[in-house]
Amino acid sequence: MLLLDGISSWFKFKLILFNDISVYPIVCQKEKRQSPIGICKEKAKSAFIPPLVFYYYNFKYKVTVENNGQTLIMKIFDDSCVCELPTVTGGNLDGEYVLDNIHFHWNSEHTINGKRFPLESHLVHYNKKCGTLENAMKHPKGLVVMAVMFEIGHCYNPKLDNILSTTEMISNKLNKPREIDGGLIIDYLLPQDKNKYYTYEGSLTVPDFNETVQWIVFERILPIGDDQLKRLTKIQLKGSPIKSNTRHLQDSNNRHIYYATDKITAKKIKDYIKEKFRGGC
Ligand SMILES: [Zn+2]
């Protein structure tokens, strides 16, 4: 995962270290819930989890895309509009989470059933109660990151066109955001079927590796054309391509990884309710 906030201290740190992942294990030796992890469907615990509820993901926003030296990162800017930012709630989330940014990793950070994908997008959300991304990073239930895998398909994905056409304008242009022509509907970057996903408690995948992230990794995969992937990942910094922005897999430490599915038995629903309200009055 990747966060942004101008030239913050982690950003400067990460500019130096991003391609030196050998540093990571030293930082994380004492930690127990680091990300990313390898997800195995057979080992994940099928669970009844109420549907996620999305607000404003179908609204067309004005969005900028920026080359921050590590990836392409997109943020909504809509000072001309008083509308709300996209938020997600429901599922097993503790409250409402506001979308802060979307960015990409090539190759994927998570693996599913041993497979690493050519591209993974992260939609980074912060808990509305925390007010800002920075505050949320310190809170145990501060962040929700949705991860979407992309696979090279037979045809190209027209929903990525707006992003790609702007991407080429920011190659070698560090921290100079450009507005995406035609705006962006955030839902275009999510699978249609949002009821099947893996979820687990994890961390940021960049320093300071805060263990404050509820991960939602969708099972459904989005297509991307071979040429589109090349256009997206040929973005450069100081004349050289950004070669690696993927953290290596972390130990799951026997964490519970839940698989949310709409195909579920009455017994599992009963178990979920029992567990959810355990310890209540
Ligand atoms: Zn990321």
From TrEMBL:
Its EC number is 4.2.1.1. Belongs to the alpha-carbonic anhydrase family. SMART domains: Carb_anhydrase. Signal peptide: none annotated. It catalyses: hydrogencarbonate + H(+) = CO2 + H2O. The lineage of its organism: Eukaryota, Metazoa, Ecdysozoa, Arthropoda, Hexapoda. The keyword Zinc applies. One of its GO terms (molecular function) is carbonate dehydratase activity. Residues 1-261 form the Alpha-carbonic anhydrase domain. InterPro entries: CA_dom (IPR001148), CA_dom_sf (IPR036398), Carbonic_anhydrase_a-class (IPR023561). Keywords: Lyase, Metal-binding, Zinc. The keyword Lyase applies. Pfam families: Carb_anhydrase. This is carbonic anhydrase. It comes from the Eukaryota. It comes from Exocentrus adspersus. It is an enzyme of class 4 (lyase).
